[in-house]
């Protein structure tokens, strides 16, 4: 009996030590990536990867913020989105505010392979140092079951083309020249939903799981050839996807987020973007663990949470 107790004590001690080491490692990595300014790479390091940055979904939210921040750090910027007037407006703003050269390419990423020939032509002969795959869309602007919407087939096709196809095809266009120059950075904007299946966001979460896995695999394949691939998985940032969130204090401005997220480049391949978002991600995982979200009660709780966080719709006035 005593030997059994000694064995259990030893097992408990080993488990405690492992948990302590795991917690210490997590805290250490968090401090290193988010809270130690001296380890951050500077703008010259970023510019050394190439003169141009390419940003998809560049006319609003995170994409717009990344485009401006990259220009502020000295890169010329190619903005790609579907609204030409917004593209031209943001290009002029970048040139006015940051004094950098810009190009615009109009493309609707819900389209199929046919849209990428024009993008490839528009990027030809540019020394692209940074690609930001930001463009993305929700299946619906609220939490819904898969069939609780008309035109299910079309909507699923749009989500797959916009969230998955765009990342794969833009990477295929830009990566060869990065490999030939043995330097380059690909930033894929994902979501906190990329780690576990998420009921009521099933198509969106699955598309972001692809982004995360694709990024990790491509990063492993080409890190020895000087290419950095980073996945950025924020919780909630001010954008068109979060315009109906009631508690605005939970949201970080897209400008602050882009600035802090770019500071993590070269320090980690997987990031929430900044300390604020890392804390929110950890709290969400603690309060709504994956096993619970996938239980029969999970979707009901997610709907209650969504309703609590959504702004009340104004009453219709006649």
Automatic annotation (TrEMBL):
Gene Ontology CC entries for this record: endoplasmic reticulum
Signal peptide location: none
Ranges annotated as spanning the membrane: 12-35
A Pfam family: adh_short
Principal cellular location given in the protein's record: endoplasmic reticulum
Subcellular location: Endoplasmic reticulum
GO molecular function: estradiol 17-beta-dehydrogenase [NAD(P)+] activity
Top-tier EC class: oxidoreductase
Keywords tagged on the record: Lipid biosynthesis, Lipid metabolism, Membrane, NADP, Oxidoreductase, Steroid biosynthesis, Transmembrane, Transmembrane helix
InterPro entries linked: NAD(P)-bd_dom_sf, Sc_DH/Rdtase_CS, SDR_fam, VLCFA-Steroid_DH
Any one of the GO BP annotations: steroid biosynthetic process
UniProt EC number: 1.1.1.62
Similarity comment: Belongs to the short-chain dehydrogenases/reductases (SDR) family. 17-beta-HSD 3 subfamily.
Protein name, UniProt field: 17beta-estradiol 17-dehydrogenase
Originating species: Myotis lucifugus
